[in-house]
Every structure is written in C-alpha cells, then in structure tokens.
Amino acid sequence: MAENTVATKDRELRKAQESTHEPERYVAPAVDIYETDEGLHLVADMPGLDQSDINVSVEQDVLTIKGTNRWKTEGEGMLIQEFEPLGYYRQFTLGSKIDQNAIKASYRHGVLELELPFAAEAKPRQIEVKVA
Fold first, then answer.
1. Residue 47 carries which DSSP code?
2. What fold is seen in the domain 24-72+83-121?
3. Given CB 3.0 to 4.6 Å as the disulfide criterion, which of 2, 57, 87, 118 pairs with 39?
4. pLDDT single digits (tens) 103-130
5. What pTM, to 2 d.p., does this model score?
6. Are strands 54-59 and 62-67 parallel, antiparallel or unpaired?
7. Phi, psi (deg, nearest 5) at residue 18
8. CB-CB contact of 47 with 108 (8 Å)
C-alpha cells in the first residue's frame, strides 16, 4: 500500500508542476532603431514566424512586439528534441513624439520592420520671418 501512495503523490506532484509551467517562453528579439527626419525606423530580428504569429500593439504609450512560435516539436517519429521553440516579446515606451495612429509594420524573411512617424507637433518646422 505504501508504494501505491508514493506513486499517487508522485503523479500529483508532476501534475502540479506541469500546470505551473508557462506554455510559451519568450526571448527579447535583437532590435536596431534608426532616426530619420520623418520618425523612427525599428528593425527586429524574429525568425521562424508566420505573419499571423506576430502581434504589434500600442497601449498607454507602450509599444509591444510579440511573436508566438507555433513550431511543432512533438509527435510521431521524434527521436531527439534539441530545438526549443521560443516566442519573442519586447516593449518600448513611445511618448508623445510618435504619432501612434500612423505606425506601420511589415514582416519579411524573419525581420519585423516598424515605421514610427513623428507627430506633426514634434517635427521641426521653419518659421517664416516677415519684414515689418
């Protein structure tokens, strides 16, 4: 009877451990950000995703980039599993300098590119000087 109790406790412990593991793990993608006269250009390295796996959002001046890797590593015929499919997650604070309604995103060959245009108020402007 003692062995049965130990086996039951072991199964319960494993179930509890499995339920506490997050189903997806994330890494921060490598990012380059360039400033132009029109705004910022962000390039993020996020290989292994489909366009539908990428979510770009802005909430309360925080830009969030999230990519969920749906690569299947389990299944029939799996002998060795060394590849761990990780998702991507990164956040940036934008501030009032960026026109948040005009942000554009594209994804090609594993690279996510975002155009973050400056708000009209933030762009430098030339003031005409009149002769009085």
1. T
2. Immunoglobulin-like (2.60.40)
3. 118
4. 999 999 999 999 999 988 767 778 889 8
5. 0.70
6. antiparallel
7. -65, -40
8. no
CA distance 102 to 125: 19
CA–CA–CA angle 40, 29, 22 (5° rounding): 130
Estimate the share of the chain in helix, then strand, then coil, as percent rounded to the nearest 5. 20, 35, 45
In the chain, where do the E strands start and end?
Answer: 26-27, 31-35, 39-45, 54-59, 62-67, 87-93, 104-108, 111-117
Contact 73, 14 (CB under 8 A): no
The pair of three-digit structure tokens given for residue 43, joined into one six-digit string: 């390039």
Residues 21-71: tens digit of each pLDDT: 445 688 999 999 999 989 999 999 999 898 999 999 999 999 999 998 876
Positive or negative, the CA dihedral 17, 69, 43, 99 is negative
Query: CB neighbours (10 Å) of residue 100?
Result: 15
